[in-house]
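Q: Structure tokens for this one, please.
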Amino acid sequence: MCGMKKLVFLLAACSLIMVSCIAPKKMVYFKDMQPDYFYSLATTELKIQPEDRLRIVVSSKNPELSAPFNLGVGGYAINSSGEVRTVTNQESSYLVDAEGNIEFPILGTLFVSGLTREELSNMIRDILRQERHINEAIVMVDILNFKILVMGEVGRPGPMSVPEGKITLFEAIIRSGGLTSNAAMDRVGVMREENGAVRMMMNDLRTVALLESPSFHLQQNDVVYVMPRVAQRTLLEDRFWQIYGFIFGLLGTALSVITLLGIYKK
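A: Here is the predicted structure, written as tokens:
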């Protein structure tokens, strides 16, 4: 009977080991974050790149002055403050060429690569004022084809369009279905093209240091890669371990019942 008890104990221990290997671990984000403490955030601005498609709308109090600087002008509109603005075709846009330039009406070739949307808006407004085209122009700049790619251990990997023009690493992961149970939270890479080369920036989702990472705010064409904790098993291997654990648990239960019956009979 002593040998039987040892066997039951061994099987129970094996069953616990199997269950611990199969059960997914809980994921804790920012585990080192302290309550009521202010953490600084990275302030990376979205930069315009070659192949970006830009929508640039120029408005002014005199719509006749701003009309020549807009593509596909469709008419005029009056806002709540009584200001008259030009209305443009939403499909009209400027494609940034390989050299980082766009061809802007009347102003000609403008180098825009590396500028933020606000910087480009200010640059066009200053040129319009300096060349005495429009003294008080309002220039709106949007990136129409902002997209990223999310790969690896997420629920729905694939390309993602970002029409709002701004997204963080956390938002990208959540919109991709969240992390899988096999995701390595300390190995989340962001691949970014910089100066003709690709740079990989590694991030740890468990620490507040992520908030100051240059890849916390994602850029155009960034690739997010969530690495696995362990090599992925095939469907056949998963089924094998499931059956293996089930059999061990069943044997452990059966032997426990047999042992209890033996003790009860005594």
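A few notes: The chain has a mean pLDDT of 79. The two ends are 11 Å apart (CA to CA).
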